[in-house]
Specification:
heterodimer, A: alpha+beta, seven-stranded antiparallel sheet, six-stranded mixed sheet, 20 helices, globular, B: alpha/beta, seven-stranded mixed sheet, 7 helices, 26% strand, binds zinc ion
């Protein structure tokens, strides 16, 4: 545990990816199995279980310290684990700290009632730095500025392999990675992953530039809506081919397929979306957008004859149904706001599954009917997908609609038109001859996001930031006018430069008029131009609206507060 | 008359009405009592200044001989009358020349403690517990997460790093007044006898310390080192801001070290790009703040610059009446000699 804590400490304060990689490689080379494997899992975020809940930690610290002082400390430090590491009131340093593996095994086997007691004991025998390492590890909250991809790269370099080899292995092997590590060290054969459900690293797009738009030519690009959901990869394998010892995937019992849903970064998020997974079977890897889609249920199992074709448009269906719309069921897509209630839910209730059912708008296929398509062009993959959709019936899969533009000018028009629909985030523009290449290859795929919405609001309250920013008033609550009264509509803590932050902080300090705990009320004089992606009706806010991802766009030092926007202006921007 | 009726804060600072003076004012005033030389307490341009001889010397070094029209040196323990108000200066243990000021008026005793700490500091006499009705205390590190380790422990981290990375120039960011000299003295106490190299901004104040009889050992300005490569494996002390600027690029293979009380918090250390954070502070940590309130045992605690909320809460929990005193201009990090 001490070596691990030491590694984290060094990683934390070392800048530069190269130096960090050296430190990790050195740790892997000099640490025995299985400790190093658990450390890799911790750093790459693949530890499959939590040692203890964040709540257990909070309860423990609440029982042993003053809750108000804890709250104020946390507000300053900005991070629970570090706050607890410093505040834990008992210290009996021990020479015989447990190894990392012992810690993992202890928490894997300890009975529920003893978790808290075990944790308390460890905290007492550890230094603040070791406590911090334990708490981050135990709640799976380790952030060391080294991405999972970098860890894979480090492992690839360590074993003198190509990173793609590690990436395909990755989801088929489990911590503490003894087999993989001995393979990398040339002491064993490559682990067998033939039939495992694994994540395939995804292909990503670049933000489009004006020059790209100007260079647009017809028949070279596939144009689609950029949906406002989350990018996922659906992997399905026929069950009979699956090896017993590969306990991967999340297909439910008795199902004929092994399947998993991965986030864009390769996190397995299957458990949150049983409704989608139950509905699919086959042998494929699909790339698509996960969304709340309301008309998935009615056709479930009944509409055998209806072939689903993806459409962009939400409830208010437009006339322009696109190339394949005539025979298709259009997905009734809801907003990101609706999807949000499904994200990070370990076990969504039946009620939630039926009030917010999810579906997938499919825009690409890496594998279809067991055939690898990644070396084919997008055009060929698209054709294969269309054929597949013709012969397959699934109530939760929709084919992404393609759109038309013939010149830079018509492309711009299309963008303007598409962005009027608030459920769409813009356009995706992909080269028809692009192969499916993991990573972000240049000049292949572009995203063209909608312009943000903006309102002029008045700063009402300010609060100190967390961590780096804890000496600055950097979190601002802003409001808009309703009659002669300001109603808060949101909070922003980004969008300004360091220089602007200093000015804002200074302004807050000079114009503070009141205080509620850590919150400063300020004179209602400063206008902030706030940008955001969407407005939603909200019953939780007095103003009745909630903004999505608000950030400070400009500081209007020049503008009188009386000229800021009204609540009616804001409500007019509500989508739908 | 209760002090809240005659001791007030305004945009300039803390003002004693019956005595017609400010303490540590931010703007130019007629009469200023200055607790110590840090820039967020001592400003130039007052008509009359009362401060310890060391603080006056520091102000002259920083702002010039004519930093105030009338400069009155006040000895430790000495009392001065302003109308019906009596002001007495006592040691605060913060930096060279630092004082707290006892103000007596209308049957009340108020202690303005300025910045202070309770640890040993070879450059100044220890903080004196002065009984009073109202204690005005700072709260720079006024949160229970702040527990400063012994300075020897932190200096050992630096010496260890020098052994592990003998090829790297250890560039220590330390505030020019107080922190810099404390780090040097702690290195000397730990047996480090080699010359220590200084950024230009640290020179004048180190010279002043030497003039005032504090032995800092051999100090060499970096500007006088012809071949900067020879600074590999040496200690260079510079203002924290210099760690990030171009100046440091002339040094060989820099290992950035920062000496500050804030270094206890990871995000802060990271923000300063410290590869080696040293937790060295010239302020009280949380236990010292509580110890002081307990020992001074005032009727009321007024809390100024820093983390007022937590300290007020804790003081009330300990049975003291507490309130926040909002003072302008205290910049806890940039000027405050953390
Ligand atoms: Zn100060
Ligand atoms: Zn100070």
């Amino acid at each position: 545990m001490d070596a691990f804590s030491h590694l984290l400490e060094q990683l934390y304060f070392t800048s530069g990816n190269k130096a960090k990689a050296q430190l990790i490689a050195d740790y892997i080379a000099n640490t025995p199995d299985p400790d190093r494997g658990w450390a890799i899992a911790a750093m790459a975020g693949t530890l499959r279980f939590e040692f203890f809940k964040r709540n257990t930690v909070k309860k423990l610290i609440t029982e042993h310290t003053d809750p108000a002082l804890f709250a104020m400390s946390y507000d300053y430090v900005g991070e629970v684990s570090e706050t607890v590491a410093h505040l834990w009131p008992y210290s009996e340093p021990s020479d015989s700290l447990p190894t990392l593996t012992e810690v993992v095994q202890t928490f894997a086997s300890v009975s529920k009632q003893k978790v808290s007691e075990t944790l308390a004991h460890y905290l007492t025998i550890m230094t603040p730095a070791q406590r911090w390492a334990l708490l981050k590890l135990g709640t799976r909250g380790l952030r060391i500025g080294v991405s999972a991809r970098s860890i894979k790269q480090i492992l690839a370099d360590y074993g003198n392999k190509d990173i793609k080899e590690i990436e395909t292995l990755w989801h088929a092997v489990t911590p503490p990675y003894v087999d993989m590590l001995s393979y990398l060290e040339g002491k064993a054969d490559k682990p067998d992953i033939e039939n495992a459900v694994t994540f395939h690293p995804v292909m990503l797009s670049h933000p489009i530039e004006d020059s790209d738009i100007n260079a647009f030519t017809k028949d070279t690009w596939q144009i689609e809506n950029k949906y406002d959901g989350i990018r996922v990869q659906l992997v399905v394998k026929p069950n009979n081919a699956v090896d017993d010892k590969t306990q991967k995937g999340s297909g439910s019992d008795g199902d004929e397929s092994e399947k998993a849903l991965f986030s864009r970064t390769g996190d397995d998020i299957s458990h949150s979306f049983p409704d989608l997974l139950e509905s699919v079977s086959g042998n494929m890897v699909l790339d698509g957008e996960l969304l709340v889609i309301h008309n998935v249920e009615h056709s479930n199992g009944l509409a055998k004859d209806s072939v689903k074709k993806g459409g962009s448009n939400v409830k208010a269906q437009s006339d322009d149904k696109g190339a394949f719309a005539s025979s298709a069921t259009q997905p009734d897509v809801d907003t990101f706001n609706a999807l949000q209630q499904r994200l990070n839910k370990k076990k969504p209730s039946k009620a939630l599954q039926s009030s917010a059912p999810v579906g997938l708008i499919v825009y690409d296929a890496l594998v279809l009917d067991g055939e690898d398509l990644t070396d084919k062009t997008l055009k060929a993959r698209r054709n294969a997908l269309e054929e597949w959709f013709q012969k397959t019936s699934n109530s939760r899969l929709f084919l992404s609609e393609t759109l038309n533009a013939t010149s830079p000018q018509t492309l711009r028009q299309l963008h303007t038109q598409v962005c009027q629909n608030r459920a769409v985030e813009g356009l995706m523009i992909k080269r028809l001859d692009s192969h499916y290449v993991p990573g972000r290859p240049k000049g292949q795929w572009f995203k063209w996001k909608r312009d943000p919405l903006v309102v002029d609001a008045v700063m009402m309250y300010a609060q100190r930031g967390h961590g780096k920013r804890s000496s600055f008033y950097s979190d601002y609550t802003f409001g808009v006018w309703e009659d002669s009264q300001l109603l808060p509509i949101g909070k922003a803590y980004s969008g300004f430069t360091d220089e602007e932050l200093k000015k804002l902080d200074n302004w807050v300090r000079r114009n503070a008029v009141g205080r509620f705990g850590p919150v400063r009320e300020v004179k209602k004089e400063l206008v902030l131009e706030v940008a955001f992606d969407a407005v939603h009706p909200s019953s939780r806010h007095k103003s009745g609206v909630a903004l999505r991802f608000p950030r400070i766009h400009r500081i209007r030092w020049d503008k009188p507060a009386s000229e800021a926007d009204t609540l009616a202006n804001v409500k007019a921007l509500i989508e739908g | 008359m209760h002090p809240s009726t005659w001791l007030k804060t305004d945009d300039t600072g803390l003002y004693c009405e019956p005595g017609e003076f400010y303490i540590d004012p931010m703007n130019e005033v007629a009469t200023a009592l200055v607790t110590h030389g840090h820039a967020d307490h001592a400003r130039a341009g007052h008509h009359r200044v009362y401060a310890s001889p060391e603080t006056l010397a520091i102000m002259q070094t920083r702002y010039g001989e004519d930093m105030a029209t009338h400069q009155h040196a006040v000895a430790i323990g000495e009392s001065i009358n302003f109308n019906d108000v009596k002001a007495t200066f006592y040691p605060a243990g913060h930096i060279l020349g630092s004082t707290q000021i006892l103000i007596e008026y209308a049957g009340y005793r108020v202690v303005v403690s300025g910045d202070y700490k309770r640890r040993h500091d070879p450059t100044c006499p220890p903080f004196k517990v002065v009984p009073c009705d109202v204690l005005i205390t700072e709260a720079t590190f006024g949160l229970p997460v702040f527990k400063h380790p012994p300075i020897e422990h932190e200096i050992e981290k630096l010496l260890h790093s020098l052994r592990v990375f003998p090829e790297r120039c250890h560039l220590v960011g330390a505030y020019a007044l107080g922190k810099c000299q404390r780090v040097i003295l702690a290195l000397r106490e730990a047996g480090y006898a080699k010359p220590i190299y200084l950024h230009g901004a640290q020179l004048k104040l180190c010279d002043l310390y030497k003039q005032l009889g504090i032995d800092l050992g051999e100090l060499i300005p970096v500007s006088e080192v012809a071949d900067k490569k020879t600074l590999a494996g040496e200690i260079v002390i510079a203002p924290p801001s210099a760690l990030a600027d171009r100046w440091s690029r002339s040094l060989p293979n820099v290992r950035p070290v920062v000496a500050s009380g804030w270094m206890q918090i990871r995000a802060r250390a990271k923000q300063k790009n410290a590869e080696l954070p040293l937790i060295i502070s010239d302020h009280c940590d949380w236990p010292e703040l509580l110890q002081t309130i307990e020992e001074v045992n005032p009727k009321e605690v007024w809390v100024t610059h820093g983390r007022e909320d937590a300290l007020m809460y804790q003081a009330e929990k300990m049975g003291f009446k507490a309130k926040a005193l909002s003072l302008v201009g205290y910049d806890e990090e940039e000027q405050g000699g953390d």
